[in-house]
Amino acid sequence: MTPMPPVPAAILALLADHHVLTLSVQDAQGPWASSAFFAYDPRDVALIFLGSMDTRHAQAIQADPRIAGCVAGQPRDISQILGLQFAGSAFVVEDEVEKARVLALYHQRFPETRKVSSPVWMATLDVMKLTDNRVKFGTKTHWRRAAE
């Protein structure tokens, strides 16, 4: 098995500096997007978020785990655009040991959530594309979990 390539530093920096993701799913009604606070899991190259099982995006993920999304700020100056697009799959973390591990990451980033009782979700990322206009307009950094 080919080892997973390292995530580029520019992508890691964005994930450290931003805390809200937009998650896109597909269900019988069509495409849907939602926002959530996230913590990054470097071991699994995944985004961890909390969310109720009865939301539209949770129901869609349970029917089809494929997801896409982005993490970005909203600068007015287009030369300052910095954003990440991603695709992968999401699931509820059921294993208690794994749940404790990823919740520790989440609580480290958002200590105010320590008393929140909610399903814990993991979005494992297969593809990421960072756009950083601060370097040069249209500068892209790509990452893939597996070699093509």
What keywords describe this structure?
8 strands, 148 residues
How far apart lie the N and C ends? 13 Å
Subunit arrangement of the protein: single chain
The fraction of residues in strands falls at: 35-45%
What's the overall average pLDDT, rounded? 94
The main β sheet shows up as: 8 strands, antiparallel
Low-confidence parts: none
Describe this protein's structure:
With 148 residues, this protein is α+β, with helices and mostly antiparallel strands. It is 21% helix and 41% strand. The protein has 3 helices and 8 strands. Strands 1, 2, 3, 4, 5, 6, 7 and 8 form an 8-stranded antiparallel sheet that branches. The chain is globular. The two termini are 13 Å apart. 24% of the residues are buried.
Secondary structure layout plus pairing:
Elements: H1 9-17, E1 20-27, E2 30-37, E3 39-41, E4 46-50, H2 56-63, E5 66-72, E6 82-92, H3 96-109, E7 120-132, E8 140-144
Antiparallel strand pairs: 1-2, 1-5, 3-4, 4-7, 5-6, 6-7, 7-8
